[in-house]
Amino acid sequence: MKRTWKAVLAVVVAATLGLVAYAASSAADAVNGKCPIKGDDVAADKTSEVKIKFCSAACQMKFEKDPGSFISKIDKVPNTKCPVDAKAPKDFEGTLTVAFCCGNCKGTFDADPSKYISKVKPKKAGK
Q1: What integer is the mean pLDDT of 95-115?
Q2: Which of the residues 1, 53, 66, 107 could staple to 89 if both were Cys, CB 3.0 to 4.6 A apart?
Q3: 125/74 Cα distance (integer angstroms)
Q4: d(CA 79, CA 68)
Q5: Banded pLDDT at 2 (limits 50, 70, 90)
Q6: Rounded mean pLDDT of 10-17?
Q7: Of 16, 73, 23, whose CA–CA distance to 47 is shortest?
Q8: Cα–Cα distance, 12 to 9 (Å, whole number)
Q9: 3 state SS of 43
């Protein structure tokens, strides 16, 4: 019986650690360090994925290397111009992870991302 409880406890601990690691990696993958709604520091578990369209694989790769350089060029969500070279987007798509300080700000962004995408500011280098 003790072995069963130890095994159950080990599974619960491992699952909890996995969820914490996933939440931390989501915030680490986020392009921003400050909430685009309130300007506060972001929370590890409050992120949204924004689909960005590109005109070519080359533009998608440039964006993925340094999304902060191109965020201000995203006109709306879904975007009608490639953020790298302003051409009409084609079948190339990437994901931009945006983090928020709280669930309310995340909900506000998710309801109308086009309204707030221009307020997403990239993290400073080294953060």
Answers
A1: 96
A2: 53
A3: 21
A4: 16
A5: low
A6: 50
A7: 23
A8: 5
A9: coil
Q: What is the DSSP string of 52-66?
A: EEESSHHHHHHHHH-
E strand or H helix at 114: helix 113-116
Question: Could you give the CA distance from residue 13 to residue 106 in angstroms, rounded to a whole number?
Answer: 28
pLDDT at 21 over 70: no
For the stretch 37-57, pLDDT in tens is: 999 999 989 999 999 999 999
- Mean pLDDT value across residues 100-123: 95
| Spatial CA neighbour of 66 closest among 115, 31, 110 | 31
Given the structure tokens 């440039």, which residue do they identify? 62
**Amino acid identity at 50:** V
What are the sequence ranges of the domains in the chain? Answer: 2-119
Residue-level length of the chain: 127
Q: Which residue has the tokens 């072995």?
A: 3
